[in-house]
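Hi team, as promised in this morning's meeting, here are the two structures we talked about. I've kept the exact order from the run log so nobody has to guess. The first one is mostly here for context; it's the second one we should focus on when we meet again. Sequence first, then the predicted structure tokens.
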Amino acid sequence: MEAELLQSPLLGLGEEDEADLTDWNLPLAFMKKRHCEKIEGSKSLAQSWRMKDRMKTVSVALVLCLNVGVDPPDVVKTTPCARLECWIDPLSMGPQKALETIGANLQKQYENWQPRARYKQSLDPTVDEVKKLCTSLRRNAKEERVLFHYNGHGVPRPTVNGEIWVFNKNYTQYIPLSIYDLQTWMGSPSIFVYDCSNAGLIVKSFRQFALQREQELEVAAINPNHPLAQMPLPPSMKNCIQLAACEASELLPMIPDLPADLFTSCLTTPIKIALRWFCMQKCVSLVPGVTLDLIEKIPGRLNDRRTPLGELNWIFTAITDTIAWNVLPRDLFQKLFRQDLLVASLFRNFLLAERIMRSYNCTPVSSPRLPPTYMHAMWQAWDLAVDICLSQLPTIIEEGTAFRHSPFFAEQLTAFQVWLTMGVENRSPPEQLPIVLQVLLSQVHRLRALDLLGRFLDLGPWAVSLALSVGIFPYVLKLLQSSARELRPLLVFIWAKILAVDSELVVALTHLVVQYESNFCSVALQFMEEEKNYPLPSPATTESGSLTPVRDSPCAPRLRSVSSYGNIRAVTSARSLNKSLQNLSLTEEAGGAVAFSPGNLSASSSASSTLGSPENEEYILSFETIDKMRRVSSYSALNSLIGVSFNSVYTQIWRVLLHLAADPYPDVSDLAMKVLNSIAYKATVNARPQHILSTASLTQSAPASPTNKGVHIQHAGGSPPTSSTSSSSPTNDVAKQPGSRELPAGRLGAAGPTGAQYTPHSHQFPRTRKMFDKGPDQPADDPDDTGHKSFISAAMQTGFCDWSARYFAQPVMKIPEEHDLESQIRKEREWRFLRNSRVRRQAQQLLQRGITRLDDQIFLNRNPGVPSVVKFHPFTPCVAVADKDSICFWDWEKGEKLDYFHNGNPRYTRVTAMEYLNGQDCSLLLTATDDGAIRVWKNFADLEKNPEMVTAWQGLSDMLPTNRGAGMVVDWEQETGLLMSSGDVRIVRIWDTDREMKVQDIPTGADSCVTSLSCDSQRSLIVAGLGDGSVRVFDRRMALSECRVMTFREHTAWVVKACLQKRPEGHIVSVSVNGDVRFFDPRMPESVSVLQIVKGLTALDIHPQANLIACGSVNQFTAVYSGTGELINSIKYYDGFMGQRVGAISCLAFHPYWPHLAVGSNDYYMSVYSVEKRVR
């Protein structure tokens, strides 16, 4: 229902008739993003998620200063008091055994987070023992991180001078240990954990000493003679991290139900201490039967997410990650939570320590300092998860009932889905994103999580950057190895989104794509096959190796390589590669080309042409030369020049480049010409004498020494290379080039050392060379070649891949703006369709009054060139007038010239047809020239923008421009998006502009040219008027051998116009130069009516709505007839005082709706006539 609403017009358009309603449903040609945007990539975003200095904590120093049984003198303990250290009661066993047990327990607790680290314990140490421990760990760790854990519960508090306390050898004194010395021994990078009272003092002292070290480093760098410069440089402390149990003025809590090392317990056993603390809160009374002893019996393991304990740990990880990601700056989050596995675990647990210890008026401190997180809303979700788990605990332990998993992740996914569905355009990031990451670990929720993640990534590059910053990359990389088929489409979409934003990740995929090619690439191919816009070759076609020709490929030059997807599939198999290359067909009849040729790449519209570069004159190719080679190149000469058979793939690629160098779209031709120029340059380099030490491997003798003449590609199709002048390119983007120059004397073949032999580089390859053999080593580069090689390498680039990535990085699931009822685009379309309705209605009312005369001149002006084709815009007061190679736009209401631009066709060609595409909406102008080229323009008659070529392609092959032929004739079907084209050829070619490919070649069955085309989408009929006087009717639904359903041969001369009336029972109206007008019923073999009008016609048109026929004569007048053959009026003079005689009529056309007639004559004048003013 929603889709229907989006496609239908607004309710305010209810008065439109059926034709007006059709405007909303008519397809638009060449209006997709690839046609409207500049083909270039977006500016690359700085990816802060990728950690360049990823680290690992490889060594851990556990320094415990407990002195079991002896309390420090500056601490007064309460009674009862917290006694547990690492969940061990030190008074339950001997002091030494208790110390060793506590040390072993602490190591086990750390090993849960980093099992591969090297652990060293120092129990009640001296200063020398600490120094020895730290220096040895730093030496072994090299550039990796070292952790220093300090428990000072058995020594005095830290001093304001930056000292902590250890013992002497006899344990009779407390010995101070300077933090400055500790920094020197530990080096950087390091992480320090201080579990003692007043621990904040250590953090402050550490910062002061670090600043002092930085100043010493600066002094030593500035003044080498300074005493500090002679000493070993102190290590920088920038990469050091600190975690302290409390502020500088605070004491550790002494709650008897909590451990004495509460801070250490939070960091190393977070779930255990969190459950104990939860049970001590008042809210625990809501969960009956749960005691401190009961929580010690929670079943399961921390690393098993299917058990209660493992699920709680999983939820805890997700919640703490989410809190950190939402509160911390992105760079700090990356450093603390994504750089080092152990550091990330400690900081996640530090958030719990802040929450628990703040409840006892104790504030943990960190460096870098974190914003407060103990009041974050996600802690309530944690409390709920703990509550649900503990409520099941009595029945699980006592009755053995099954554990019911927490709904936490499902609820968070729902919250994320609500954010995606209900959020506004500009919104803050979803706080559940890190949780979605954790959910990917669950097989139960993975499919839903991937679906939501894909929808989130579709919001744009910013969403992809957020997902990468939270750490999605390793998760989705691992999921590529999954064998679950239902995940494949989602993973393909997600990876496409990621790679579109960060293409550097392709490297990370290399080994996986190779290893899992059948699992991943096949999915991509499967989805590409399901795209109906680009049909794939049939298996038989693929097997035979027949590829889609370039000249018959999509008409959008920027996307011609898209149609080559089937070709790529045809040659990707190693078994069929060689066979496919050998079977390539490039005959003129097939119009074939090699789909994977360099010229088939799409070019960025901003790519600069090398034709204007003066330093590259001798390697320049002209447009006319390339086009001449493309048309009349000698097979035998090309064969003898290259030295390989004509059927070889090299020859065929060469011919493809020649075709593409003459492409009507400038970017395509420029790119092909750059490729040809680079080949010309390489041929010049390779033709120089090369010193060969051994010629035993050569299978043929070296050719004669090259001459000193420049090598030019324009001679590749015929005679051998000689020095000549490169002719100019007539396109509007290519300027005339100066003449070529001789090669410098330094490049001539000079005599080498005595006895040495020389041969061109191309002849150094043996005849038996394998396909992928790299060949002989290249000689050292000539210093003179540096400029040319840099020019060539810079030229061979397009922006197509970057643009494709940018296009896919944007939202693809979002409702298009034109379907948004409140969007600006939608409002503009409504206005245009209301305008169309008004024009149709007013024109129809005027026609219903009857046409008695059509000679009121409402517009007259001198055109810049002799008009050859004229075309009214159907709904705006604009008329397009084409001369030989330019288009002029006039406002026939105001009498103003709106625009004038060059069509871009070569000087020996002319414009022979024009059509308005999307005339009911965003209009484009299609021009056709007698060389078979089709060009589509936008922004014409626009005061704010310059005309711009949307696309261009070779609509017809093998057309030779001539002044006596019909040129190229076209007819456009807006309802189907089909373009019919013909002319001085023996076929009618149908192009599908939606799929951007050739659909059908219908043979005309005649030896003369096609002079007029007309089609009817309702009946699928095509009517063609020919130069031999015949009128032929084709049904494009039938097979090629049967599609010509009728041939009328009643005319004896050139058919000027053949029109198929657009109604179910519409007749065919045809007129020849002899003036005989014949009406045919497509079902009858003979004409049903014949009229005779003036002879010697040069132009004629039939009004599609009124029964009017207008014709222009060589005798300098225009006559208007009714449908019954009655002369309404004739026009011989221009209006005004002393009105001069009109020139010979060169073209004329009726307005599609209004009773207006535009007439162009050979005297350069363009006039528009209408009915009498009193009637209008």
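And here is the second protein, the one for discussion:
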Amino acid sequence: MATDAADFAISEREKFQHCYNRLRTFYFREDEASKTNLNILLDELIALDYSWIIVKTEEANHLLTKLCGTVPLHQERLVVKVCQIIHNFRTKQKIDLEERSLDLLTDYIVKALHRCPAWVQAEMLKAFASVLYENCDRVSRSLETLLGQHGILVQLATLPTQDEDVFREAVQCLECLTTKPASGDYMEEKYALICFRMFTNLLHQTQSAKLDPFAKCKILTNCLRGLQNILQVTKAMPVDQLGPVLAAVRAYMFYGLCNQMPSVPESLYPAAYGQLDVLNPQKGDENTEAIGETKESKTQGQKKGKKKRNKKAGVKGDSENDHLMSFDEEATHLVTSLSLKTNEDPLFQPAWTKVSSSESDWSDTEGGQGSKFRTYCTRVRQSSLGCLHCIIKTTDKKLMFGYWSSFIPDSPHTNSSSEQQSLFTIIMKDAAPKCRLGALTALTSLLDGTKLLLALADDSEDVSMAFTPFSVILGSTIKELHRCLLLAMLAENFPITLTQLIKCLGTLIANVPYHRLRPGLLTRIVKQIRHFINHRDPNVRVACLTCLGAMASIQPPLMEICHIVQPSHPPVGTHYLHPTELERSHPRIASDSGINSSQSVSSSDSSHIEGEKVPGPMSSGCSPGVTTPGQGSSSSGIQTPYFSDQTLQAHAREISWVVKLCLRNILPQKNVDRSGKEIDNSYFEPLPVRLESLQVLAHLTKGYFPIIRSSVTLLREVIHKCYQERDPVVQLHVAKVLQEFTQVLLQDVQSSDKVTSPDRLTRQEVLDFWLSLLNGPVPAVLQVPFNNPVRATTCDCIANIGADTFIALPLDKRMLIITLILGLTSDEDKAVRSAAIRTLGVFVLYRNLREDVSFMSDATNAILGGIDDKSIAVRVKAAWSLANLCDALSLNRDEGDGEFMEEFPDSLLYKIVTMATKSCQDNDKVKSNSVRAIGNALKYLPARSINQENFVNAIAEGIKALVKNIGSGAMKVRWNACYATSNIFKNRDLPHGRVSWTSDILNALCGAVKECKNFKVRINAALGLTSLEERSQFGSVQIFSGVWSDLISALKAAREITDFAEYRYRDNLIDQVCAALVHMMSLLTPDDLVCLQASVEREGDFLMESLDKYWTTMPMLSQIGMYVSPAISRLTRLTNGQLSDQTQTCIQVLLAICQRLVMPDEGEVPERTVEKSAFIQTYD
């Protein structure tokens, strides 16, 4: 058979070669013989079987060039045949046109279109479409001729038209012109906009035009695909065209569905949510029961009968008690609801469940045409959904959110009118799996990235309001999304569509604020996807795991998820017939796990998942320790309780069924024969299933660690086994699991000092875990120069070891870790270098390591090497680590570690200051830590180094860099620079007040505290001014009085807020500025008072009023109190000196101010009621 096919292809190739050779030497004359010979040659070329590749690119280009120069335009019949050959070469032989051939063909066809009659134009346009396909960048010179004001395509693709075929092919040309070329270049923006508007206008006009139904379908498909092409390339949606395009797309989403031909409105407008009304939950029964009723052929008696049957069948609406239903009741409700609606309204029945051809809308005599037309309608719907997906992807989420009500229902509808059709109409009714898939893809894209937009959703029970709040509409929409997706899951049986449906649920889970809704939605989702956890299609299993991972990623953690994930049994019996290696080593997993059993789990074993009332969110009362904001209040807003560690840990003694599921997906499983006997060779689940299972474990570890605590031993073995695998992707994913696990393990150990619990991991268990890693795969992974992402992530894991665990390790293991990390700081891969330097930045803060001069010297050299790295990522981590290193040096000085200060070399200290100064000119992310490093390095600087000439210059350059970053740059850099100056002033060995840079720093701080728009910068600037502990550090009297005046100005400016976001920092700023002023009072000298007389006389009343007002509002929270007593003592001593009357008056004013700030006795502090605040701080 293969030989015959090859012989046939060779024969066709020989025929083409014969024709090609004859045409190369052919010369056309205006006589009958020449016309006849050319006609015969063209017929022979057309008659060839082009299903085989028989034409070479060079031959095709030469042949087409020859034909364009040979066949005259007035020979219409010959021109038609030339167009057929062009079409065959481009579409069947996939010939790439050369630049010269493309230009000749374009000019030839455009001239022919202007000259030839209409009956020839259709074939020309068909060939022209194949020429333009993916070539819009190469025909840019002809775009004005095609798309200009009098362009040929603009004229031919405009309604009304005299020739339907020409119109259809012209639209086809426009679509091909918009396809993305291989080069990546595209047509100019103005031509793309012309095409966009033409497609939009045609979508609005074609439906009402008098065209053949099949031609109409083709034209609509071309227009929708053309819009999709433009949006995919330009990535920009014209805002002025959004309403009209969405109106057309929404109309054609339902084209031919349920035998309906929609009308296209002029435009679609954002919903006015204030005018909508949400369905009363208490009336949901009636509305849901009536969902399938139609007015045709229905008598009033029939309606009553159906209502009675519905009530007998127990069909329920979306009532507020649905979340208390058991899964069996809920599944029965969904299936019964679907079947009843199907009986009442044939249109509600999912069309792909119709098996009998006699149920078709078309008669038997029209079966062929009817089937063809349905196929064409399906293409229209599919193209419309694809276009909608592109519109959603290229439109701002906030802008698209206004059109949600046109595509997503916010309540169960009482009828199936076109105004209430939504994406779920297609998902539930469309017979074509690709259309259902397209609708789900568009819905997924619509939901993705809307977490902030849905954050206000509310599930209020109060329905007595005069209007429906927007938050309640959002809550109702979210509930309807869950309801419809779960209904669709019951009916869907196409694997690809089912996969997308579950992915859509996962996207919904990731964006919904479940803590503001009543519990139950997530439980229903898990009860549905439980049936697909062991689906034969691995893509479906991956989608289910993605849903579980999305649940585990919800923040804040919810008690409902704990009750879903926590039990040792899954919601229903799932079949794992083959034990894994881990089960044999840990019988606890396999014994009565509910996963290994071939029988379903009894209802008594999983009653807490199957809908029975349990403590916590699933019952009326919450367990002790469950955090339930708003509990006991009738107002909604925060409905679902958060979980507390103590409550959950008391019940999480068994291994979670989700953990078991993930472990079985990750680890190898044994093959068994029909008799149940094990076969030697084991097998793994498909790689996507294994990777998604590892991600679920990572999410579960991060958000719900109490559930993982009882599985530490199992996780340790999984980590070991996955690290030993050769697949780098598996190693990377298990490294991510280890990273999350070590982070929460460190937090758990640190919190155990504050909260004692017998269920927490002991320090010995944590130490054993780390010893198993260090004795296992971790050292080998770090030393093998392959799979750099795994090595980098493993470095990050080691950084989470913690100071207490590190010091408890044996000496050889500590030396192993330090040796490995120091070696990796010079690795060839930038990610590994970055992670190793960051780990050093953590280690330098460990007490036992920061007191080790040898380690600190090695770490300094390694970190300074990263400051000069070519990679910005490495430099950012190096700057952060350098700042931590300087923090450690500063701590050693504060703790009086004189031995360390003597042994730490000045040469390294000099490098630290100079390299930190140099990096202050780098990226903002580097600067923010470099200024911090300068501040702590100069705070540490010992007296022996300050007077050295090289250090004098280095200090001056470092101060200059700080001053520059205080005055300009990113806000984080500026407030870190201000804070760095407060550290510099704490080193009394520095020549503060005796060198020129003192005034530079003070002027920079005063400028920041007065004028910076960011209040956090102002606060840190005021803090820097408060850090000068001696009068001599200010320098001259003029500098001191200038600082005083600037602080007074800053106090006035603090009351003027231009940015409302800074309001929450205002009180802190005023407090810090007042503290700085009172602190300066404690440093006053008689000479200072002479300069301050005028300022105190002018601003005394304002200063007293401000301090008194602020002090009386929050005396217990202010920092002013620590400076009041020294200020009073200083002013009292000054009154005893020989001063002028004006100076004495100045002292008395200041003394009166300070005396009003004296803290009253504890019994005299008036009890203040807590003021209501319009602000709620949320901490991450």
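Starting points for discussion:
The longest strand covers residues 678-683.
Residues 273-365, 573-637, 1161-1180 have pLDDT under 50 and may be disordered.
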